[in-house]
Amino acid sequence: MTSTLATATKRADELHAILHEHAHKYYVLDEPSIPDAEYDKLFQELQAIEAAHPDLRRADSPTQRVIGQVLEGFDTVRHAVPMLSIRTETDTTAAGAQAFAARVRRELKLTDADPPVAYSAELKFDGLAINLRYEHGVLVQAATRGNGEEGEDVTSNIRTIRQIPLKLRGVAAPVLEVRGEVYMRRDDFEAYNERQRALISGGAKNEKTVVNPRNAAPGAV
Known about the structure:
The protein is 38% helix and 13% strand.
């Protein structure tokens, strides 16, 4: 390795760490610690290094965050573990809660001598279920639930979501799959529809508003 390449490699590694850290603060913690202009300057420095040394361009580089046209026509992905949906409970009465608790104990094969089951409840966000696959801490694939056995490869489109890290922090497992929901907040939904209405009133063709945030999220991906 030449001294020039060694210097470029060292600086690229430094910029990866710096940019990932500031992206985490900005997009996840909502606590930016440097001005946008300074971030852009660091980002452009990394772009220049990668342009001069293409072999230094890594899959987890901040420059590989996809920006622009969302892709259509997806390849099929087979899930390593079936991606199942949560069973819906509609009986919100006391009797329904008791029946649910009894069924849980039966399915866990618990007896009356076993301790009570502890529950954790959280809000359910309706959007698009996504499986993220990381290998050695680097995002290599994102797929929709599909039919539970097979989904669509939407990796390129998921890379446009700033809150999803391209590289995990800390010690990385050889393989880690994370499942969650892509959803649109109501204020973002309202802002999106407002922009769409402005485009439509301005005469733009093939533009339309969306009915609700739940429908907007899958359409965006």
